[in-house]
Amino acid sequence: MKNKQNKNNGHSSTDAGPQNETPPAGSKQKQDSSKKSRKNRPKIKILFHIVFWITWLTFIALTVLTLLDFKRSGSSLLKGTFFSFCLIISILGAYPRQPLRKRFQTLITWTGFLFLFVELTLQILSLSNKLPAVCVYDHIPFGRLYCAQECRVSGFMNRYGWHTSPFKLSPDAGKIALIGDSYIEAFQINPDQHLGQKLQNLLNKHAANGQKTEILTMGISGAGPAQYLEMIKIAVEYYQAREIVLFLFLGNDFSDTLWDPNRSMKKPDRYIYYTINDEQNLEIHPQSKKARESFTTKLINNYKHPFPDINRFLKNHCMTLSIIKIFRQLRNTEQEAATQETETTMSQNKDFSINIVPDHFTLYPNMESVQGELITLKILDRCYQYAKEKNVQLKIVSIPYFPGHFYEKFSGSTWSFTFDNFDYIRHEGIIDLFTQNRDIPYLPMGQWMEENRITTHNLQDIYLRDGIGHLSSRGHQLFADIIYETFYTNNTKSIK
Predict the structure, then answer these.
(1) CATH number of the domain encompassing residue 294
(2) Is residue 154 in a domain?
(3) Is 461 contained in some domain?
(4) Alpha helices per DSSP H over 150-224
């Protein structure tokens, strides 16, 4: 019995020996990792398929949208190249034969991954105000805004495509529209710091009989008097504004109205220019009729529809496409400036911004400057006649310009706008005469600053870029206070 037990025990031990052997540690880890990889393969495959389909459908959509853009705004080399690229990708994604189709799909998928990585990085940088030296915006409802020039501001346009607080458009509130260029659009500050919001707070704080006032801030960067005329019409007819405060920037508003092939930064088919005919009457430049129609149509569509142009909306919110567009515009601007400016002109302009024409400030202006002033005054007269016809009050405020060498020449409170054969508020005298003849309330801020002996240090606080840029938040507060005291209080004398 003992022998049998021993044999059985021996047999069981010999049989169990090889079964209980543990595999090497390395082979077990390989088996576990292979199992995990087999489990993860379907997930990765699904992810690749999702990215492929999103990328492919996006390229198809871009192809269609670019084709529609051809019909609306014409063609260009860059637009044609982009359309061809999108079309090729769209065709390759549907290639029928297998080995090449798989390669094309892989290529498209990795293109999608790369695009998503770049776009996500740009969005994070813009939302955290870390993206340098670009200004992304478009005048569309709920448009994306990121500006890193002078100050860094990130946000969105309001429902009507303006950089300001949301419009309430209450029928019980009196509406005042502020019309101007980039100084009124003010990408450099948040909407709650804008002079429009400050002025609205002052008016409602001191309102008699509880009458509420709503300020409609309507600024467009690069606009001039020709655009202001159209903006006034839209403010009155669509937004029901009963009062207009028109802001004239003395830096370039008297030169933007005249088309000069040697100096104008925008061509007539992309900007509104006027001319004086033989009968000394104002008429629009023949090539600018299309630009005027396009300008007004966009603003009206913004009022009527919350999403008037899906193509522009998507391009605006895609930071990658927006930055590509910015670099293209900068390249075109540099090329146009290089072809227009001679070495002499460049040496004369070294102390001025790129869109400022020094000749318009000289004590003895040339014929082009006089022509620009005449056109501007005739456009302002049309603004006045339109406001009078619609029973709308028109008021004008001028924003002075300070060149860089102003701060090299002056310091403290002893300074003047007239130096080195230039008079930087010469146009305020022209506007003053124009407004007096028509009984238009006028606030010449340059004259106010000079009479009140604002120090150069304070001027550099009022304007960004050490005194030569756009208005700072302090500048907006100052303008709001002076506008309120001048136009809306009974105990304040006119500054004329």
Answers:
(1) 3.40.50.1110
(2) no
(3) yes
(4) 182-185, 195-205
Q: Which residues in the chain come in under a pLDDT of 70? A: 1-41, 43, 48, 69-79, 82, 95-98, 100-101, 326-355, 491-496
Tell whether 464 and 402 lie within a shared domain.
yes
The DSSP code for 265 is S
Whether residue 172 is found in the same domain as residue 55: no
What DSSP state is assigned to residue 24? P
The pLDDT tens digits of the residues spanning 455-479 come to: 999 999 999 999 999 999 999 999 9
Q: Residue 4 domain-assigned?
A: no
Cα 124 from chain centroid? 19
10 Å Cβ neighbour count for 181? Answer: 24
**Domain presence at residue 156:** no
> Measured between alpha carbons, how far is 214 from 200 in angstroms, rounded to an integer?
6
- C-alpha span between 275 and 297 (Å, rounded): 23
Model pTM score: 0.80
Whether residue 434 sits in one domain with residue 302: yes
Give the type of residue at 170: S
116 and 227: one domain?
no
* H or E element in which residue 155 lies: strand 153-156
Pairing assessment for the beta strands 243-249 and 174-180 based on DSSP bridges: parallel
User: Closest by alpha carbon to 64, among 81, 80, 87, 85?
Assistant: 87
Q: Supply the range of the domain harboring residue 78.
A: 39-127
Closest to 290 in 3D by CA, of 485, 73, 67? 73
CA quadruple 165, 168, 169, 171: dihedral positive or negative?
negative
Query: Taking Cα atoms as reference points, which of 178, 167, 108, 119 lies closest to residue 144?
Result: 119
Which residue spans within 212-333 are E strands per DSSP? 213-219, 243-249, 274-276, 282-284
According to the model, what pLDDT value does residue 135 have?
Answer: 84
Pair 192, 57 in one domain:
no
The Cα–Cα gap between 437 and 33 comes to: 88
Which residues in 22-149 belong to E strands, given as ranges?
135-136, 144-147
Is 62 exposed, middle or buried (CB count within 10 Å of its CB: 0-12, 13-18, 19+)? buried
Which residues are paired to 176 by β-bridges? Answer: 215, 243
In 341-463, which ranges are E strands? 393-399, 418-419, 422-423, 442-444
Judge if 97 and 177 occupy the same domain. no
Do both 457 and 385 map to the same domain? yes
